[in-house]
Specification:
The complex is a heterodimer of chains A (268) and B (310). Chain A has 268 residues and is mainly alpha-helical. Chain A is 76% helix and 0% strand. The longest helix of chain B is centred in the middle third of the chain and has 18 residues. Chain B is elongated and about 80 Å long. The chains are: A mainly alpha (268), B alpha/beta (310).
């Protein structure tokens, strides 16, 4: 019971911190929003989904890119939330948590949960824009989408945690962001589909692909809107759930293992 | 080690690679003591602090805190420790009160008990009027006081502080010491702090001096000073060389000229000064009697000066 209080206390701190720093809210929500608007405007006219005919009936790029943008928001927010571990360590806050009489996993879960909740909140906010695309949400689909976003965000926050734990500067994290995390998103089917060649293999091996595909199917779950998703050869929704849950479980376990090790940063 | 010790350390050795940071340390700290750990950088005091605070696990030897082993009963030890780190552990984006509110559950406090403890501690350290302000708006001295409140939230019988005076002006330092004394006297809290400042170590009940991973001195500051042979006498005069000759002739004293002044050491300075005044008063412009300092103790035990970077 007390462990739950610890987890919630650490998570609540993340939420308060996040919403108090307006630039972080803008950064995590603003950039994907700009991407979505600009790429939809720029690539929209020349975009054709594989398998769909020319002309009417195909999915617009704004629609295609929408689930990917949700994933990008989750990724950015998760990353920003975990970068704060580096600040926490440098500023000494982390030390006071490390010497508290609590199990290490509750510290990890508190941190991850905080980042995840912030990410889900931002994701939900962005979903409102989907209404302009003619998306309809039912109570059931919203619950399913929220649950899926939560799982994916937890996985990504865990990934961020594993990367951030050993770092002693935020610059290092930005490098990882550009060469690893951002490409991981680019090659997830979020930005463009790939069904042949080596790209298809990369996509299949990327856990993020299943996150984006899951979101895509859940967003277009309602009757009458299946046209867009149906033209793509996506992994089944069940596969997406399993992979994303596994992704979250693995990054959480890795975070706990990581947090049990000490880093040179502690020597400050 | 004695069973009643607040902290009992035995045969504690810690290495970073091939460098020995602590070498077979034995040390007991009694309950209710205000204990200082003094040493230059690299003396091992920071390593000792990290071990005591449970941030680092011991490699060799053992530490017991109030009878609990620091490895086996880690949670129990953590529950009885209040720790104030050198780097401020406050979240700058939270208010003073929020900092304590989110810390409470980590040390087993919530709800009304947490509210009451928070209100009481903020009042006690005279920061109640800043409770609603963001931590980043506080001065260094105030921040350190909120740190104290945070560390003491769960009423630990033992308080550890790492270089608590770092970054504080003299006024804030004095305040800090007033609060520490009060804690020790009214609440019986055992206080252990590290420092590289001699005047700070001088205020402790007992003091351990470290050099290169070894304990070189352990006693009350006064008693440590008493172990250094003598007092130093410094005399200002127009003609130092002549005075040195005169002292030698009349009183049989071996004095030296240091920086244009005559300096000598003697086991009993207070008795010697009047004799010097009687013998050579015409030549003396000023005479100063210096009691031995902890620096002298350090020099006597290690043969080197303590390197201070402040």
């Amino acid at each position: 019971m007390n462990d739950l209080r610890v987890i919630w206390s650490l998570a609540a701190r993340e939420l308060v911190r996040f919403f108090r720093q307006r630039n972080r809210v803008i950064g995590a929500l603003g950039q994907p929003l700009i991407f979505w608007l600009l790429f939809s405007a720029g690539l929209g006219p020349s975009f054709r989904l594989p398998g769909s005919g020319t002309g009417e009936g195909g999915e617009s790029y704004a629609e295609y890119f929408f689930p990917g943008t949700v994933a990008l928001i989750l990724l950015f927010t998760a990353i920003f939330a975990t970068i704060s571990i580096i600040e926490d360590r440098r500023e000494g806050f982390l030390q006071s948590v490390l010497v508290a009489p609590i199990p290490r996993w509750s510290m990890v879960l508190g941190k991850l949960l905080g980042g995840t909740l912030v990410a889900v909140a931002q994701g939900l906010l962005f979903l409102l824009l989907g209404l302009t695309l003619g998306l309809h949400y039912s109570v059931v689909s919203l619950v399913a989408i929220t649950a899926f976003m939560f799982t994916l965000a937890l996985a990504l926050t865990g990934l961020g945690f594993v990367i951030a734990w050993r770092m002693d500067s935020t610059q290092g994290f930005h490098a990882v962001m550009s060469v690893f995390l951002f490409p991981m998103w680019l090659l997830s089917g979020a930005f463009f589909p790939a069904e042949h060649g080596w790209l298809a293999w990369v996509l299949a091996a990327n856990p993020m692909t299943y996150g984006v595909a899951g979101l895509r199917q859940l967003l277009y779950l309602h009757p009458g809107a299946e046209a867009g998703a149906a033209t793509l050869a996506l992994p089944s929704l069940a596969t997406c759930w399993i992979v994303t849950l596994l992704f979250a479980a693995i990054t959480f376990a890795a975070s706990c293992k990581m947090a049990g090790t000490r880093t040179t940063g502690d020597l400050l | 080690m004695t069973a009643s010790a607040a902290i009992g350390i035995s045969r504690l050795t810690h290495r970073y690679g091939s460098r020995v940071a602590l070498d077979a340390l034995d040390l007991d700290i009694a309950p209710g003591e205000l204990f200082a750990i003094l040493g230059p950088n690299g003396s091992g005091k920071t390593t000792l602090f990290r071990l005591l605070s449970t941030l680092t696990a011991p490699q060799q030897g053992s530490i017991e805190v109030l009878g609990c082993d620091i490895v086996r009963d880690r949670r129990a030890v953590q529950q009885s420790l209040g720790v104030v780190f050198q780097a401020p552990s406050l979240d700058k984006k939270l208010t003073v009160r929020e900092n304590l509110r989110y810390h409470g559950p980590l040390v087993g406090l919530w709800g009304r008990a947490l509210d009451e403890a928070t209100t009481e501690l903020l009042a006690r350290f005279d920061v109640a009027d800043r409770a609603a302000d963001l931590a980043e708006t506080l001065s260094g001295g105030l921040r350190r006081r909120v740190e104290l409140a945070k560390g003491l939230l769960h009423r630990p019988p033992l308080l550890l502080l790492d270089e608590p005076s770092t970054g504080l002006d003299p006024g804030a330092r004095n305040d800090l010491w007033r609060y520490l004394r009060e804690l020790r006297e009214h609440d019986g809290v055992t206080i252990v702090l590290t420092t590289h400042l001699l005047e700070e170590a001088d205020r402790a009940d007992r003091l351990a001096i470290f050099d290169r991973g070894k304990l070189v001195a352990l006693d009350a500051p006064d008693r440590l000073r008493a172990t250094v042979a003598g007092d130093s006498i410094t005399i200002e005069t127009a003609d130092p060389a002549a005075l040195v000759g005169e002292l030698s002739r009349q009183l049989g004293l071996a004095a030296a000229v240091v920086d244009g002044r005559v300096r000598l050491e003697h086991p009993d300075g207070p008795r010697l000064v009047p004799r010097i005044m009687d013998a050579c008063s015409a030549r003396i412009q000023a005479i100063t009697l210096g009691r031995p300092t902890l620096e002298d103790v350090f020099i006597a035990r290690t043969g080197r000066r303590m390197q201070n970077d402040e």
